[in-house]
Structure formats: structure tokens, C-alpha cells
Specification:
This protein has 147 residues and is an alpha+beta fold. It has helices at residues 6-9, 17-22, 66-69, 92-97, 107-110, 115-118, and strands at residues 32-36, 43-49, 53-54, 59-60, 128-129, 142-143. This is UPF0260 protein ACFOEB_17400.
């Protein structure tokens, strides 16, 4: 029988800060601009990336200082996890919060941080930097996740 690992043994609330951070699969989807429908509250993702997102690696270029540089950057915390329905269904935090398993392409499962890109589950090669898009044009970039 295979040994169980921390994300199978612990709840999100029981994880250390280091374990919590390692749950991020590096997809980059939460770093995309989102639009909320004022009528029904539906959240729509766009293919427009935050100015700090490295669109190849799908990692923040300045993670420690991101809140200072991008004031509306959202920090995922355990206290707010119930409010993060807007996270994509493939998000590791959402999956674990909903009692699901991490997918085979997750770096903690595969041991390979690039597996998510090869599986097509990251935004790598699929988005444009916000500097290239006028704010009034965001609606033209709405995308829908498949799978």
C-alpha cells in the first residue's frame, strides 16, 4: 500500500504555510482578469493576464510583493476559501476543499512542475498580458474552461 501524503492526511486548515503554498498547481488561472455579471453575480474569466504573471511559467514575477504592486490581487486564505467559488473547478485548493483528489498532472502528484503545462491545464501560451489590452475591451477576451 502506498504511503499517504500530507494533502491526503491533513485538511487545508491543518496544513503548514509551506504545505499550503505547495498546493498551488501553477496553472495561472487565478491571475487572469475576471468580470462579474452585475445581474446574477456570475464570474467570467478572460484570457488577459495580470501584469505580474509570467505567461510561460504561469508564476508570479514578484510573488512576495504582489499585493503592493497590484493592490486588487487576491490572496487565497483558509478563512476565505468558502467564498472562492470563482476558482476554476480544476484548482487544487478548490478540489481539496470539496473533498476531491489532486489530479495526476498536479506537481505534488507527478513530481514534475511542467506536467500541468503538458496536460494543457495551465494558461501557458493561451493568454495575453494586460498591458496589451484596453480595459474597455476585456469582454472581448472572455474564455470558458474545457475539462
Amino acid at each position: 500500500m502506498a504511503a499517504r501524503v500530507f494533502w491526503q492526511e491533513k485538511t487545508l486548515a491543518e496544513m503548514t504555510p509551506s504545505e499550503w503554498e505547495s498546493i498551488c498547481d501553477g496553472c495561472g488561472k487565478c491571475c487572469l482578469h475576471k468580470l462579474e455579471d452585475e445581474d446574477d453575480g456570475e464570474v467570467y474569466y478572460t484570457a488577459v493576464a495580470c501584469q505580474l504573471l509570467d505567461t510561460d511559467s504561469c508564476r508570479c514575477r514578484d510573488y512576495p510583493n504582489r499585493k503592493a504592486r497590484v493592490p486588487d490581487c487576491l490572496t487565497l486564505t483558509l478563512a476565505d476559501l468558502d467564498e472562492y467559488e470563482w476558482l476554476p473547478s480544476s484548482c487544487a485548493y478548490r478540489l481539496l476543499a470539496e473533498g476531491e483528489s489532486l489530479p495526476p498532472w498536479h506537481p505534488l502528484v507527478s513530481g514534475d512542475p511542467d506536467a500541468i503545462h503538458r496536460a494543457g491545464m495551465s494558461v501557458s501560451g493561451k493568454v495575453v498580458p494586460e498591458q496589451q489590452v484596453a480595459p474597455d475591451d476585456l469582454e472581448e477576451y472572455i474564455i470558458h474552461w474545457v475539462g
